[in-house]
Amino acid sequence: MNDFFIAANRSLNLEIDDVSLEVRQILMRQFDLWVGAADPIKNTLSNVSDYSDEILKKVIQKHLIECVVMLQLITDLDHQAILKTTEDQDVFRQLLKTGLKVNQAYFIDKEQKSKRRKKRTEVNDHESTWFDSFQLLVSNGHSHDSIMNMTYGAFKLYSEAVVKREKQNIATQSNIIRMAHHAAAKQFKSFVDELNG
């Protein structure tokens, strides 16, 4: 899904037996319920974005209950109705495929992290909480309510944008410090005047 699909909190409609079913993105306020069901599915998919029938059959076979819980969170169907769709494997696979596609921001990790970076992240994960991530967004103008009503994809992309901007800011500040250190007083004053004016 593209950035505007995620940012606008759009959903996909699935037509099943003359019934239009809305399949939504997961919201952060439900993320604790979502991750318990979706994480084993994500591990089974192992970063695959092409959900063939063969892959979906494997996921359903290994994680039927998790699929039902996950789909219950992103549709208006209760668990009984979702279980009823399993009677027609094609319909259930189509429903699961739509749910995975709509929430691809969770199931696909586009970054390929180096081993060194991964080790550093593992150390930081023991010290960090979700509140640290929320604080990052709050300190950049988001409210608690807006964060909880974001889709996971929007939360992830906003967080990445804030981190990117902060890294750019640090690089800019470092360059200014270096310039100040090496520049003559008159040249640096001219530079600061340009920034202010």
Task: Walk me through the structure.
This protein has 197 residues and is mainly alpha-helical. The protein folds into 2 domains: 3-107, no CATH class; 122-196, no CATH class. 19% of the residues are buried. The protein is 70% helix and 5% strand. It has a two-stranded antiparallel ribbon. It starts with a helix and ends with a helix.
Strand order of the largest sheet: 1-2
User: Helix and strand string, N-terminal first?
Assistant: HEEHHHHHHHHHH
Characterize the main sheet: 2 strands, antiparallel
Domains (count): 2
Rounded mean pLDDT score: 87
Question: Can you count the helices?
Answer: 11
Number of strands: 2
Helicity range: 55-70%
End-to-end span in angstroms?
42 Å
- Percent strand equals 5-15%
- Uncertain segments of ≥5 residues (pLDDT<50)? 112-116
Overall spatial form: elongated
Structural class by SSE content: mainly alpha
Radius of gyration from the alpha-carbon trace, in angstroms: 22 Å
